[in-house]
Amino acid sequence: MNSKEYISSGMIESYVLGLLSAEENLEMERACAEYPEIKAAREAFELLVEEQAMENAKPAPRELKQKIAAELFSDFESAPVIPVSSSPVRDRSPKTFRWLRYAAAASFILLVGSLWWNMNLKNENREIKAQLEDFNNRLAQAEQDARVIQGSNKIAILAGTAFSPQSSATVYWDTTSHDVYLLVNNLPIPASDEQYQLWALLDGKPIDMGVFEITQKPLQLYRMKNAQAAQAFAITLEKKGGSPTPTLEKIVVLGNL
Amino acid sequence: MNSTSKYSEQELIVLLKEQSNEGFNYLYDNYSGALFTIINQVVADKDIASDVLQEVFVNIWRKINLYDATKGRIFTWMLNIARNAAIDKVRSKGFIINLKNQPISDNVNAVITASVQPETCDVGLKKVLMKLKEEYRTLIDLSYFQGFTHEEISKMLGIPLGTVKTRIRTALSQLRILIQ
Fold this sequence. Notes:
The complex is a heterodimer. Helix content of chain A is 46%, strand content 21%. By secondary structure, chain A is of the alpha+beta class. Chain A has an eight-stranded antiparallel β-sheet, covered by helices on one side. In chain A, helix 3 crosses helix 4. Chain B is built from ten helices and no strands. In chain B, 71% of the residues lie in helices and 0% in strands. In chain B, helix 1 packs across helix 2. Classes of the chains: A alpha+beta, B mainly alpha. At the A-B interface, helix 2, helix 3, helix 4 and helix 5 of A face helix 2, helix 3, helix 4, helix 7 and helix 10 of B.
């Protein structure tokens, strides 16, 4: 039989599927060793069967892996879980020492594991603490803001001027403590070299109440300088740092108390 | 299939010979399904098939040093261990006694067609098998899935031994074309 006839005879398939007699198996092995093309045909069919089997594989029952692993690794003598070099000296060591080694290895792994876990918990704890502090600060601020608005005796609604018609702000003035709070309802963000300045007007004279920055906080309530008395309030746009006297053509909002 | 494999054939063999946990995990995760399926094609009962699979893994694990790469791929070797174990189980005394509790006809024709019924042949080789001509299908089923020797088949079907052999070979070379 030449190798071509051999390949089409079905012998190769029978061999791969384990259907030949012991004698025929030997014959196939000899043929494979002698003729590379027969070996190649055998390997091609093997791959075909493997692909077929893999493609059609249904999963084995889940719990089986544990069960088999338990059987394979229960006997340390023949199948160590951790590969250790099995020199003859070591093999003669008493069984208890082998156990000690495994126990030591296991407890080391446990130790490393628990340290790692601990560290994770600590980091998490720190994060939560920082978050809590942040929330507490924000809550205190909100409570204070609410008290200011609630406790103020006098309110001045500042409306936009021709210079900035869309602008508006509110001043809360506590007549007993003389605290002045400014709530920005709507003010455009000024140019980077400019800043808003609040003025109190008393008998036609402006009194500087301080400059402020527009920030991103949800309630834009700012504490300004105290005012003993005032009839009206105004905000002007000044150069950064404020001016001793207001730039009158740049009044953005104005309102009586 | 090969593109998703983490290890090459040689690497897998080395891992198995080292008897490492990693080797077992890889072996099981990649091949348990295919081996279970082939066993399940011979042994229909899932629980018994599971027992056989366990036995097969233990055998692969303990006999890896007997594997000879010049004789074929590692999967071929494992597949044959699985198939032989499954057939041994079906032919074992305990299994036959078990089956006697169930109503089963002992006439030869029933045996012959038993494992090629359409509902059990929806996977793998059996699916391909269904495409063969009837006379070939029976022969492959008897020899491959039921593990009868050529002599036994010759007696069962009343066909000369030589004819059984040639027909099985012809059937198998057709099988290859069908798989491709």
